[in-house]
TrEMBL record:
GO molecular function, one term: oxidoreductase activity, acting on the aldehyde or oxo group of donors, NAD or NADP as acceptor
Domain Aldehyde dehydrogenase span(s) in chain numbering: 31-493
Organism: Limibacillus halophilus
Lineage: Bacteria, Pseudomonadati, Pseudomonadota, Alphaproteobacteria, Rhodospirillales
InterPro entries: Ald_DH/histidinol_DH, Ald_DH_C, Ald_DH_CS_CYS, Ald_DH_CS_GLU, Ald_DH_N, Aldehyde_DH_dom
Name of the molecule in the record: Acyl-CoA reductase-like NAD-dependent aldehyde dehydrogenase
Active site per the UniProt annotation: E263
Family membership: Belongs to the aldehyde dehydrogenase family.
Amino acid sequence: MSETLSINLDPRLLANELSSLHLINGALVPATSGETFDVIYPATLEVIGKAAAGDRDDVVSAVAAAKAAQPGWAGLSARERGKLIVECGRRLTEHAEELGRLVALETGKALRTESRVEASVLADAFVFYGGLGSELKGETVPFSPTMMTLTQREPIGVVAAIIPWNVPMMLMAYKIAPALVAGNTVVVKSAEEAPFAVLRICQIMNQVLPAGVFNILSGMGPECGGPLVAHPDVGKVTFTGSVETGKIIYRAAAEKLIPVTLELGGKSPMIVMADADLDKAVDGAVGGMRFTRQGQSCTAATRIYVEEPLREAFVEKLTAKVNKLKMGDPLDEATDIGTIVSQQQYERVTSFIEIGKKEGATAHELSALPQAGSGLDKGFFVRPVVFTNVSDESRLTREEIFGPVTCVYGFNGLEEALRLANDSVYGLAATIWTRDLKTAMTATQRLQAGFVQVNQNLVVMPGLSYGGIKQSGLGREASLEAMLEHFTHKKTVIINMT
Ligand code: NAI
Ligand code: MG
């Protein structure tokens, strides 16, 4: 437990080293079946390594390890667990550059603008939750003078976390840090596309944590994630991904009557009022759309409603700004925008762009593909697109695209903006841009979303509850409440004093 792993800044070597392995009960082990699948660098389609194809047998081993480790882990004081989690954060900071490069290689997210940023904020989640051990407290209840009545927080047991590929390290951190501090042990199922950076994190943390406390499997959703959710010893599932898979997991959890946290998709509106600071709003749209992450974000500002007097100028400034972003090799420091993560996502995103064009919307296709002959010809590069003249009923307006595609619409007056913004099955994030206090306050009250911001478009931050309403999910993450409500149960204790 006191070893230190050496830092490996060559992501290809590291991917190779981590190939074909799960981490179960403190040890790197291959899949029981010996099966693997290829992991690619989406900029060149080069195979960078193999992931272990976990199935039911691996799930059984990982859950058994987590179950066996749980009483000992919960038997440490909460502050002691917290200190170990803070130490994990410290070590992850030492490995930040290595992790940034590795996640850039497997996801195609540009190193400078995205992957390194993800790696550098990762430790924050561990430091934040590590400090909250002593907040796992109960209450005394003034029920009767002859009865001492109190509540106490207890861990659930074994928690399963199923994570996606878009921000795999950070999304995993916001699941496992609170689960562990609360005294649970965890089994993570990584995303097919991005198994290595999270496996590396698990390896680093296993230098600090007792064996079996944090286990990780790679594998396909139905073959590995399915049996994990269904395992009788898993007492809680926390998931980030598509609405479709979220519903499958919710149904499976219902069979066992266990709690779930679901962070699902979004179609987040951004409302720009005529009195807004135009340049700030344009910057907010570029950042909020996560163009540098190829729009692969559940909170991406994909429906931008601009009040008519500003609409034309807004589109002009937005397209000019996005046009300046440089697409290229994700590992190149000069690159702003890397690639889409996989062929499946590439086809999905490009098909939406085709739909928009066929419907007669105006497609402003921006930036430029990497030059022919740069070795990137086969890569999953998609030029960012700003659509205008899109109908409210278009699939572009209705469905999550999860690519560098946003639509700008016009409106007149706050009432119309709120009606359009709320006309969605999703309710994850929303922003409004205005200098008027009353407009801002009215909008924050009436926007149907779990995360609403005025005149800014920031990402998830420790301490602030994050999550959606409507089909964007169930539960909250990233806050103290998230740990207490989603990773513990409350026991009521009554002591008769007569
Ligand atoms: P997905 O929801 O299918 O995959 C996410 C995770 O769930 C992966 O680890 C996957 O292996 C696992 N999974 C899939 N089927 C499962 C099952 N039956 N049982 C248990 N686990 C299962 O998402 P995918 O296919 O990667 O992307 C499809 C769409 O989902 C994207 O286009 C995007 O719209 C949305 N998405 C949303 C994300 C978010 O941050 N909310 C992240 C990733 C995708
Ligand atoms: Mg899927």
